[in-house]
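Hey, I'm writing a tutorial for new members on how sequence and structure tokens pair up, and I'd like a real worked example in the thread rather than a made-up one. If someone can provide the structure for the chain below, I'll link this post from the tutorial.
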Amino acid sequence: MRNKKNRKSGIALFFTICTIAVISIIAYGMIYFMRGEVYLSENYVDATVSLLLAEAGVEETLFTVKSQMNTPGNPFYDLITNKDEGSIDVDLSRLSEGNSSVAPLVQGGSAKARLTWQLDRKAFEDLVAKGVPREIARQGFITVNSLGAFQRTRKQVEVKKTLKAMLIKGPLNTNAVGMVAPGHGLYMNKSRHDSFKIETFDFWDPWGFIVKGGKVYMKEGVKVDLPKWLMLTKMRNELDHPWLDIGIGWTGWNGGGDFSETQLEFSDDPITRQYYKWQGLFSWPWWEKTSGELYHSQTRRVEEYDNKQINLYPAEVYRRLANRVIDPQEQASHGKYFTDINFKEAFGRNEVNYRNVIPLYGWGDWRDVSNKYSRYFGNPTKAHDTSRAVEINGLTYIKGDVFLEGWVKGKGLLVVEGNIYVGGDVLTMPDDSGLDSCVGVIALRDKSWDNSTEHPKTGKIIYKPHHDSDWSKFGITHPFRNLSPRLEGSFHAEGGLELDTDSSMRKLTNMDIVGNLSVDQFDRRKMPNDIRVTYYNWQEVLERSSYDYTVDKKVDYTNLYELAIQKELLSWREVEATL
């Protein structure tokens, strides 16, 4: 009986041990499976981060290459210009380590990249066949091999993108006439160094010059006086003590030059500002006049521009490209276009004469203005009639003096070998098809007789204001009508810009230019009292013209290269760490 009980106890122990073993195996299997899932999840996260790092490495490489590839001496520039194939490593430390201004992209990650260049022989020969010089014809493939790693990944992710590097042509406007100095609001070569000086006793309305937008180029540099108001507003962040420093001039409101909203460029002497700088409470004198500081932080030295870079060409080029040429010296019958013009003030008190000029007068006749209820009892003027606007399409070349005023339409250049007299506003209006109009005015010196070096007689844009007794219905000219003309267009004057008037209100004569002003001779004291240039790129409107402004048909190639993405993503995969 006892043995039977012992056998039952042994069977129970065996089944108990087996049950515990099975449960342990199941539990261990679940734990192993869960650990595997966790490992796979962690590995997936690490691999995903590695992929993102590798992708970031590609983009960082492209940014580095595009920003440096046209810098002579750069390894990549040397690679694509001098070798048929090769590889260079790209520094991606900013992604993985960061720097003082940029944090690492991912903590614990790393990225490396190698860039490979392979010349495409067939494409190279095609470029040569098209006329590209063999020494600069380059076209091929760039492969970016980027590897990213993150934490526990034992392998790196390789991402490849294939791109095409090819030679690009020079800009069209370097080989075609058009807007002179299209990137500049003000462009001048030779200038008087006191052009922006505020006279000590000029307390009524000092001469002021404002440029908004574009760039300003002064070959010889200049010293610019700062009025107090400018120092406290737009130039406040450029000065050490704007509230304590003292400006030039008595009124402190106007004068000097306001170039705070534009980039300044010079080739020879620098462009500096002039004011009385605070020296400190324990220094004597407390203020000292300073003139050695650059005008502002965007003032820099550049290489001198040649004429082709600013779209300026000799007179014979404009004559050859012109679709209309007026030259009384070559064709005597053209003399009929030149005449004398006379304007009289109301009641015939004063008169202004323009001698032997071609009149380009764009104002209409107030008698042709339709009577509307709103102005039935009003005073319609010649400006209300736009039917007689001066139409300039293509290139018009005139040898002699020109008088210009009023409405203009079309897309074209007016090139005058002589002087251009402006009598009032020059305003653009839509052309016959309703599109934007633009006019480029270029005054060139007549070097057949004008050989002066200091004070040219020709090539000038002369603002000569006048009254007009027949300007309006009532026959009374507003006394301030021509004191602040608005000129819309691109204006280049080889002989400079001048004001010609003996009016007692000369000091009140200002000028507003919408476009740009380019001069070779810059004498500020001969110009209107205040000038404001609001930059506008008329070249973009001019290029919409169907007229061919190309100087010659030769393709102008540069030594610059561009990157064109051929395939967004060629491949990506996990590979052994090789970089």
